[in-house]
From TrEMBL:
<dbReference type="GO" id="GO:0004825">
    <property type="term" value="F:methionine-tRNA ligase activity"/>
</dbReference>
<dbReference type="InterPro" id="IPR014758">
    <property type="entry name" value="Met-tRNA_synth"/>
</dbReference>
<protein>
    <recommendedName>
        <fullName>Methionine--tRNA ligase, cytoplasmic</fullName>
    </recommendedName>
</protein>
<keyword id="KW-0436">Ligase</keyword>
<dbReference type="InterPro" id="IPR023458">
    <property type="entry name" value="Met-tRNA_ligase_1"/>
</dbReference>
<feature type="domain" description="Methionyl/Leucyl tRNA synthetase">
    <location>
        <begin position="34"/>
        <end position="311"/>
    </location>
</feature>
<comment type="similarity">
    <text>Belongs to the class-I aminoacyl-tRNA synthetase family.</text>
</comment>
<dbReference type="GO" id="GO:0005524">
    <property type="term" value="F:ATP binding"/>
</dbReference>
<dbReference type="InterPro" id="IPR033911">
    <property type="entry name" value="MetRS_core"/>
</dbReference>
<dbReference type="GO" id="GO:0006431">
    <property type="term" value="P:methionyl-tRNA aminoacylation"/>
</dbReference>
<keyword id="KW-0547">Nucleotide-binding</keyword>
<keyword id="KW-0030">Aminoacyl-tRNA synthetase</keyword>
<dbReference type="InterPro" id="IPR001412">
    <property type="entry name" value="aa-tRNA-synth_I_CS"/>
</dbReference>
<dbReference type="Pfam" id="PF09334">
    <property type="entry name" value="tRNA-synt_1g"/>
</dbReference>
<dbReference type="GO" id="GO:0017101">
    <property type="term" value="C:aminoacyl-tRNA synthetase multienzyme complex"/>
</dbReference>
<keyword id="KW-0648">Protein biosynthesis</keyword>
<dbReference type="GO" id="GO:0005829">
    <property type="term" value="C:cytosol"/>
</dbReference>
Amino acid sequence: ITAAAEAWARGAAALPKPWKPQKPVLPVEGMRNVLITSALPYVNNVPHLGNIIGCVLSADTFARYCRLRNWNTLYVCGTDEYGTATETKAVEEGLTPQEICNKYNAIHADIYRWFDISFDYFGRTTTPHQTTIAQDIFQRLLARGFLLQDTVEQLRCENCQRFLADRFVEGTCPFCSYEEARGDQCDKCGKLINAVELKNPQCKLCRSVPVVKPTQHLFLDLPKLEERLEPWLEQSWATGDWTANARYITRSWIRDGLKPRCITRDLKWGTPVPLDGFRDKVFYVWFDAPIGYLSITANYTDQWERWWKNPQQ
């Protein structure tokens, strides 16, 4: 408080000159470099106040604070555009998935401009950089033995002539009996679900009852990482600022034992899987979407790795 009073008494003339970063904003040797991302808003809706307050506004406030501190700051965001939610919205509106993405990306960008959110760059995930980086990460996982191939039982709608991705199927949760559980997770009890575990499943497109059929998929071999993950988590919990909710959810996953997680889907709208035998599939959106932070930065600057692979700065 004393320091603040003294600074106030000295007046604005004594303040350090505002830092004006070059464009594009890149890490600077000897400065505090801060990369800020907002959680990527999904593209199939119009943002409301809850989205803005809970996501982009808090990050915007922090970005403005960092700039006032004369920290070299880059703030990026963009729309998350792949996955079944986009396909579902496209069916509802009679448009193609790309048309849906183009329509709602523009709406999102306009709303954030209206609120004067201070993004340095607002992008999207349906770009060539997204494909290149996601496929590169996939190839690295494959080369290091972190992927499994397996036949899985999956729900198929004979009426629609398609395997049903998670959001195209709805039913009763096998754990808590919530009647509107999705094919990947129950929004009531929070448990992860395989779609074939749902009771009374229905195709969300035509409301017919799907049948169970086998299909080949690729899985992230999470159990192989468990021994390395646990000590890292213990250290991170001790030194980091994890929320109570994040700690609880992560601990529950570790306590129950990590399971292989499917990273491919029988869809058309997504990043293609670059592997023979799987080229008619795309990456599951929760494998693909977090890579959007990297690809959006790559669309902002071809020197994106200076932000994402540069722990010294």
